[in-house]
Design goal:
The complex is a heterotrimer of chains A (341), B (335) and C (328). Chain A has 341 residues and is of the alpha/beta class. Helix content of chain A is 30%, strand content 22%. The relative contact order of chain A is 0.13. Chain C has a two-stranded antiparallel ribbon. Chain C has a two-stranded antiparallel sheet with strand order 3-4. Classes of the chains: A alpha/beta (341), B mainly alpha (335), C mainly alpha (328). Chains in contact: A-B, B-C. Chains B and C meet through α6, α7, α10, α11 and α12 of B and α1, α6, α7, α8 and α11 of C.
Amino acid sequence: MTDEPLLRVRGLSKHFPVRQGLRATGLVRAVDGLNFDVRPGETLGLVGESGCGKTTTGRMLVRLLEPTAGSIEFAGRDITHAGRRELRPLRQDLQIIFQDPYASLNPRHTVGRIVAMPLQVNGIKPPGGIRARVQELLELVGLNPEHYNRYPHEFSGGQRQRIGIARALALRPKLIVADEPVSALDVSIQAQVVNLLRDLQRDLGLAFVFIAHDLAVVRHFSQRVAVMYLGRIVEIGDRADIYERPQHPYTRALLSAIPDVTQLGPAGRIRLTGDVPTPLDPPSGCRFRTRCWKAQDVCATEEPALVPRDGGNQATACHFPEVPEGEAVRSTDAIVEEVSS
Amino acid sequence: MSLSPVEGVALAEIESGPEAGAPGMKGVVGRSPGQLAWLRLRRDRTAMVSGVLLILFMLLALAAPLIEMAYGVGPREQFQSLLDNFGMPLGYAGGVTGDHWFGLEPGLGRDIFIRLIYGLRTSLFIAFAAALITATLGVVLGALAGYLGGWFDAVINWITDLTLAMPFLIIALALTPTLTLRFYGERGQVSAAFGVGVLIAVFAIFGWTSTARLVRGQVIALREREFVEAAKASGAGLGHMLFRQLLPNIWAPILVSFSLAVPQFITSEAALSFIGVGLSDETPSFGRMIYDSLDYLQTDPAYVFFPGIMIFALVFAFNLFGDALRDALDPKSSR
Amino acid sequence: MARFLLKRMFSAALTLFAVSVLTFLMFFALPRDPVTGMCPKNCNPERLERVRTELGLNDPLISQYAGYMKGIVTGRDLGSAQGGRCDAPCLGWSYVTNEAVSDTIGRVLPVTLSIVIPAAILWLLLGVGLGMISALRRGTWLDRAAIGFSLTGASLQLYFVGAVLLLVFVYNLRLLPVPSYTSIFDNPAKWASGLVLSWVALAFLFSAIYARLSRAQMLETLSEDFVRTARAKGLAKRTVYGRHALRAAITPVVTIAGLDVGGALGGTVITETTFGIQGLGRTAVDAVRSGDLPTIMATVLIAAVFVVLANVLVDLLYAAIDPRVRLR
């Protein structure tokens, strides 16, 4: 595994104009300046509440949505504004798994046709024929290869999601964007599908951008985790750091909301008050400040940058990060200095 | 997130399909939504009866020359000897006899039965041709408008609104002779085929917008579906999107609208002939016969009766079948 | 709401404008010399040329069109051969009937209105009533009879129904006079007896369509959750069906009705031909036959106005019932 990132995202933004009649009356800043890398074979979990821009980000990565600003580099090539023809070779390396297993399969096509679609669209003729390849893929995702001629309506949600995964694997991609692949499934099925994805990652050396709102699922699956809030990454780091030493108050609040059966006694749950502000008019300074219990004046005036702490892998965008136990409390001034420098 | 799978006419089958069985059960070949609809249609008695009736009508139309040979009377033969001094057919019910099953036309004394058979041929040909052309135009333009959106969609939409605002009968009435003049000038006899062609063209110009509107709506409903995005993410082009991904999902409403458009065109052809454009007297047609017959309403009601019943039976069979088809394709509706 | 209204009006005006341009082009710019049709039988070349000049046919198309439009808005002078001053709304002069087109329209429009409006009331009441009853009494013989009625009606031809009605009620039973138009203000009884067959024929065919449509709508509405909720919370059947379900089911019916009535007002060509009543539709047919361009133009425009107006009305009604529409 090299350290050269497979996917490099810089300043990625998506703004949707809000129209009333013909006039544009505002901008929804769904995604606003994301920076992150994904290395080959690595899984980056992207978590956050609904509406924080995770899905928009995923769609931009596979170019289903056109980014407003920023750049996406895949395997060293800038694909931010590549046309359909330029993208073609890259499509094979970059695939997506969708959230809704009922909407993501064409109900009029047989399973075989669905899984073969990426091959046919790209004019690829695998050795041994398309049919053999499709059956191999079906087997790989744990489906009966004899079900080649069946229709999606004959399968359950979990089986459908497996079909969607087989389709994504058809072109032997290097990176798969999984957009909440299990959140539409029953809890009992979720684990099976996540395990399947993990096995595939291990066996095929796939890199994943795994989008989810469920922190428990992400923990199970990701080596690195990025936490999003209102179109921005507020904290990014290795799994252990994020889950055990969260520094951003929002991350802490999210983590505290996971039910934990092992912990007895009063749960240290942090309740966030108020609603997520509208991305049409995000709060000034730190976007989380309206719901943050640590917010001070500086949070309204200055936007905290996503800066690495302690020179490690973990970066946090907060003026008043949580301090891991045993470390000295640094003064606010020092942090502000650090941010502005 | 919602688990509710699908909405819309086209996709309703999913809910009625057998719920996913465990893998490895029975056969390995699944039934497509189309096959399921076909099974439902086969079980529907009305559909079967009206379907058989329609096939019969079509066979009659196709075999018109054969019938003429067996019947021994041509559509333009005149039997003046069987009319009285006022030009009215002798005998009962407009001259019904063993030789002339539906009697004779007053005035010219032509045989009504064989003229109806040829009229059926004319009507069905015009209706099917017009329905095919309008469906093709409507599907292609509607799908493009729905999928592409933007200015193309706006233009198509606007044209649709415009044709809705134009009074069809009057425009067709005015357009048919002008079109004929444009190609034939003032000279001579206009061929029957040309008259038929003009009618089909007029129907096509006005008819495609309703299919386009229907298809556009369906495509818009489907276009944001994830399976469409999946194809896009794999690099599919416009053609694949429209004809492989989207169209297979909307053929059900298209088929229903096609099956209901055919009787509409039959009716329109008759209506145009009725108000005196449409086809010349040379070409036998239902509307033309009824129009001519109205003059004899008091003196020879049988002459009004036979073409009227024939066209009713034809349109009725088509409507019944179209309804049954809709039920079979969309089990949720109208039951 | 005002914004929505304004927008809707604008697009309606645009559509009418396009219809007028298209019609103008279709009839004035097509190969047939418009004048030959307008000149009575024995025409000499000088007279033809005079008519051509009087009609302004030697002017460029644009100024012809502009003149026509100006006539509608402000009126214009047509010259002594065409009856002199023609007040707004001036639709031109017909050489076939030798009168101002607006006079012709003024005469035949009440006829068409007298046919369509009572017929529309009849077909809506009958159609929607039948549809509702058959939806509520689903599966009974009543329902089946209603379905049979609507399928039959939808397949019948107006001229055939008209012919049968004429034969039975006028010629055989002699219960009614031969259809004709009398002004309602002169003699309401004669007005009604002269037109009743046309109402019945139209209502029979249209109510069939409406019965089908409203039955399907009502059935769909009855299976919706809010109806079940209303029943479950103990509201009387009558309140639920009458107030909650009916309102939801009727909205799509309103749209179609608006379009149909608009279309019918634009000319009930077949009805008027069948019953031999001279209304707007019949006038249009006669105008086409005799090549009477100003009259054709006027009838097409009026028909378009009715359709577009009906569209706007339906949209406004929708916006009043369903506030979401306004936001689009």
